[in-house]
Amino acid sequence: MAGIPTAAVAATGLLGGYATARWTKKRPVGGVVLAVAGVVAAREWRRKAGNATAGALGGAYVVAFAGSHPLAGKIGAWPSVCAVAGGMALASWVAVDRRK
């Protein structure tokens, strides 16, 4: 896991969770994808940047997921998920991944 940027894990969780839920037509299965990626990302955020950063990014991950729903009503489902995944990736990169 050390070689995979947390930004990619977080964005993949949001995108993959939505894609899984949509294509399987089983929202709980998408939720599992979302949650597993969130746990992996949180573990790495904590390991690389500490508890405070992990807590803030974990909160942002939940807000991104929740915020994608009302945003989808305005711009569409895929654009919404892509927007929040991009925002989450950027936040994770700025807070954690750009550190060497």
TrEMBL record:
Keyword field: Membrane, Transmembrane, Transmembrane helix
Annotated TM spans: 52-71, 77-96
Origin: domain of life: Bacteria
Protein name: Uncharacterized protein
Source species taxonomy: Bacteria, Bacillati, Actinomycetota, Actinomycetes, Kitasatosporales
